[in-house]
Amino acid sequence: MITIDGKWIMEGLDRSDARRIKTIEELRNHIDKFGFLPFFKGGIEGFSLEELTVADSWWSGDISEDPWMWREIIAGEGKIAYGKLFRGRAGFISRDWFPIFASYRRDGYDFDSRYEDGFASRRQKKIIDILKEYDKLPSYELKKLAGFGKEGEKNFEGTISELQMRTYVIIRSFRRKRNKKNEEYGWSVADYMLSEKLFGDEHVRSAYGMSANEAKDKIINHLLKLFPDTDIGEVEKLIR
After folding, report:
1. pLDDT tens digit string along 16-39?
2. What is the dihedral of CA 82, 84, 89, 91, to 10 degrees?
3. Fold for domain 97-235?
């Protein structure tokens, strides 16, 4: 994605290109096959939903081909993890690969242990503590309940992004706000959930026996098999 005159310009494929992901079912199959997929173009050529779809299908409002709408459907299904999972940007991770990323990103720490050892902030703990009490929460409610705002904690977006990158939190679904007449309005907002509540404690932590370096090497080697001409430095940047 590039920005020209303040507008987002997507970089995608021609409609006639055989590599193109044409439907949400093809996207699900692609994620399951490859294990994970960034939303927008990054350091690995051809490894993003943006580069595998048609540019003019984005934000078209046509649910049959609009990737922006697909993300809401996939997040809502709860079978594939969605959130800011790659360099603080959005992406998907399959159920099978999520424990590998959890092992790498957490380095064997459940959140409480990370906090007790001084590797997590008080702001992060406030968010985690609130999400423990609820199945899921929209961002505006989570922000309020966790004490973020003008007179409270700062940098909600940065804090929730870091928790997603550490695999503790995922985006479970999307919703639009409602006015006093119960009418929907505005853009869709994310509902956040603890990843253990989505996939279960046992599954999310099932690769904890693997060290962070072993998990990292597994991810890197997988990507290098898929994209053998890619510089290893770019791979490390993407999954960091």
Report:
1. 888 899 999 999 999 999 999 999
2. -20
3. Arc Repressor Mutant, subunit A (1.10.10)
